[in-house]
Amino acid sequence: MKLRFFIFHFLLFICLAAMAQVGERRNDFSIGFMGGYTMNKMDFVPQIKQSMKGAPMVGFATRYVCEKYFTTICAVELEVQYNNLGWKEVIEDGSNNTYERDWHFVEVPVLMQMGWGRERRGLKFLFEAGPQFGVYLSGKEHKGGGTWNTENRPNGVVYQYGKDPDNKIDYGIAAGIGIEVSTPVGHFLAQGRYYYGLADIFDNSKRGDFGRSANQTLLVKLTYLFDIVRTKNEHIK
Question: With 80 as the cut, is the pLDDT of residue 158 above it?
């Protein structure tokens, strides 16, 4: 647990430090919107066999480009996104039962973004990493496959059924890569990202049923940003 908190706060520090001016100064601020697709599963201990659960994602994005350090363009990106996470179980006990759980979250990634390439017109490669926060809104169970029978579940793990989250605040680490095409009418980004949850949704104390119950998310998304403030420098390309 101490290692999780160290990693989380270290990445948060990096994102805040990225706003310090040590290279060629930039003052570009952009806003926009995004949409994509998430594939989520839960890291459970004891383990529950799952397949990736997919769902669409929508949100808003802001970005502040603060400097260019040698060839690296440094920025901080903050997003607000709505996600339907949760998990989809693979039940192999001969019952034909199916089970899927929706987790509805509002998430706020705060990412340090580094880019290499053209700033104004052209292509740029992106790498980003930083902490992500989430708030649980609601959830829903989907049971199917005829008569519901949990007697033969692997290892007898049935604690998750009908159980509401014990912790509604999620946090973890997000990192990803992407490409950006800048044009006179805005910036078009295509990104892939992985989120590793550090917070357990269910109680992980000695009285709890799970030792770990955290989100693990793959995300692919498209973002459009348009400039609100832009650095005035005719030499920027």
Answer: yes
